Amino acid sequence: MYFTDRGIEELQRRRGDDEVTLAWLADQLQAFVDVHPEFETAVERLATWLARLDDPED
After folding, report:
1. Any idea what DSSP says for residue 17?
2. CB–CB of 26/47 below 8 Å?
3. Quick one: which of 47, 39, 43 has its CA closest to 23?
4. Which of 34, 48, 9, 6 minimizes the C-alpha distance to 58?
5. Which residue intervals of the chain are DSSP H helices?
6. 30 in helix, strand or coil?
7. Contact 43, 33 (CB under 8 A)
8. Model confidence pLDDT, tens digit, residues 3-52
9. pTM of the prediction?
């Protein structure tokens, strides 16, 4: 188990039944980067990966 898995598991436990929009998620990611700019690259990579999930070229 990776250390980050604990955070993912907590997210599933606490928010697993919530329904959110991608606009809401984008807002939360932006707010996180505003508070923690050192994670900008990781958040950018995650957002790009999520945006391109259905892109056959990637």
Report:
1. T
2. yes
3. 47
4. 48
5. 3-15, 22-35, 40-51
6. helix
7. yes
8. 668 888 999 999 999 999 999 999 999 999 999 999 999 999 999 999 99
9. 0.78
